[in-house]
Amino acid sequence: xxxxxxxxxxxxxxxxxxxxxxxxxxxxxxxxxxxxxxxxxxxxxxxxxxxxxxxxxxxxxxxxxxxxx
Length: 69
Prior knowledge:
The protein is α+β, with helices and mostly antiparallel strands. 39% of the residues lie in helices and 20% in strands. It contains 3 helices and 3 strands; from the N terminus they run βαβαβα.
């Protein structure tokens, strides 16, 4: 699953969400105003524009996590 962090008035964010919806790619959207500043500061050192897209790995159990990281 993807996590998309963006701004509501960002045309790039809206375009990415539309592409993901068209391709039926599962994602969660978070407005940057609702994300802790420490997390955003981390991303700003890597990327200076919105949206940020993070690939989230999901695991059923801790053992599953250990085997798949």
